[in-house]
Automatic annotation (TrEMBL):
Keywords: Repeat, WD repeat. The keyword Repeat applies. This is Uncharacterized protein. GO terms for cellular component: transferase complex. SUPFAM superfamilies: Quinoprotein alcohol dehydrogenase-like (SSF50998).
Length: 171
């Protein structure tokens, strides 16, 4: 299950293994919208303008011995639930983390396949796919200035933090 907060601070979106994305009003806990999607939802992100929801969707069928499971990213209009971009392909295991650069120009997806993919939010084309560690990518904060694999930590990265200057990252 995944939870994402809207920029207005008044709503949240949830995604679940029950193959739904829901938008909730925080003031009274009322479900405002519910979309049934085709796969389990592993991660969610609300774009900075609050008008689109990015979801990472995929499946690992019960009894499947195939370790390669494809996950896709989808962008939906918050008001209608209509798909406005996607699928974005590239990960071969569950997408665990989504984040967006401070300027909104880069979306980054981190996966249990140990890669991070940087996506251009104007074209929704993949900019960079980088193996960044020897363990799963659990959380991150991107910058449009990024685009190369950085030397350093090669173990599990449970989180990343970026300084105001986009060239400084700590893990």
């Amino acid at each position: 299950m995944s939870i994402a907060t809207f920029p207005d601070g008044k709503r949240i979106a949830t995604g679940s293994v029950d193959e739904t994305i829901r938008i909730w009003r925080l003031a009274d806990g009322r479900e405002m919208k519910k979309w049934v999607v085709k796969k389990k939802v592993g991660a969610l992100l609300i774009l900075r303008d609050g008008k689109q929801v990015v979801s990472a969707e995929g499946d690992n069928p019960e009894g499947s011995y195939d370790e390669t499971v494809y996950w896709q990213l989808w962008m939906r209009d918050v008001e209608t639930g209509r798909v406005v971009a996607g699928p974005l392909d590239g990960h071969t295991n569950m997408v665990l983390a989504l984040d967006i650069s401070l300027d909104g120009g880069i979306l980054v997806s981190g996966s249990a396949d140990r890669t991070a993919i940087l996506w251009d939010t104007k074209t929704w084309q993949r900019k960079v796919m980088a193996p960044i560690c020897s363990q799963q990518v659990m959380n991150m904060i991107p910058s449009s200035a990024l685009g190369t694999t950085l030397p350093g930590n090669r173990q599990e990265i449970p989180g990343l933090a970026m300084m105001t200057a986009p060239s400084i990252i700590s893990s």
